[in-house]
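Please fill in the sequence for the structure shown.

STRUCTURE ENCODING:
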């Protein structure tokens, strides 16, 4: 008996500056229900900022950065309300769950998690959430 092939993951990670992200190919699955669409987690940049004590020893690390959580959409979607209700709202909930997951990791603390709604970005027309974050890790 042949084992079934594993399904292609619906969540894709990429690291790189914004202009590189636009070069990626994204599935055109905007006609599928949201749960069946590919989701894209794009880490655009991270600055590492060691926090030093009076003796120049690292007490903690601070990470400032920006990421995107996206799904395929259409420029011709009927309205922004439609985009929000069908996928942006769900991606915002997903972004909040990522924040909770990071906060659950030992030694990590999220001190900033600013979510900005975005629409029709890149050549493939993606909608979603841009997150500007600050995360600290105690040493």
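FILLED IN BY: designer on duty
SEQUENCE:
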């Amino acid at each position: 008996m042949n084992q079934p092939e594993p399904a292609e993951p619906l969540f894709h990670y990429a690291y790189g500056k914004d202009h590189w992200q636009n070069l990626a190919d994204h599935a055109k699955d905007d006609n599928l229900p949201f749960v069946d669409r590919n989701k894209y987690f794009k880490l655009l940049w991270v600055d590492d900022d060691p926090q030093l004590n009076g003796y120049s020893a690292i007490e903690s690390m601070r990470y400032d950065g920006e990421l995107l959580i996206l799904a395929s959409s259409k420029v011709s979607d009927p309205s922004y309300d439609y985009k929000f209700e069908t996928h942006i709202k769900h991606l915002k909930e997903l972004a909040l769950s990522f924040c909770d997951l990071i906060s659950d990791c030992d030694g990590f603390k999220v001190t900033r998690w600013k979510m900005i709604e975005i629409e029709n970005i890149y050549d493939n027309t993606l909608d979603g959430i841009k997150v500007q974050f600050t995360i600290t890790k105690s040493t």
